[in-house]
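Troubleshooting: if your tokenizer reports a length mismatch, compare your output against this known-good record of 108 residues.
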Amino acid sequence: MMRHAIRYSQSVRVVPCRATAGDTGGIALAEQPGQSYLIAAAVRPDRKSERRERGSLRPRERRLLLPLGRPPIRQGDHLYFAGDARRWRCMQRRDFPAHLEIEAEVEG
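Known-good structure output:
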């Protein structure tokens, strides 16, 4: 697995998103750009994205990240990949004893 992780390794910028309350009392997720950080992760396309989801008009584009170490990423945080202008969202974080998996989906 280490050869696999090193081969597809790239730098990913993580921007935490936290709930903020507006003047009218509404709650929304807002990026915290001052708290952004970089992680090194093996980035692979998720095989689930090759098929259409039931009831969806388009296949979802997903990526599976295998980060080095255990970064403090949470569900809902935004991810930015080098050479890709799109915003990705952390959909799920799966902790295993030997490694960590992060499932990301393109937003918008």
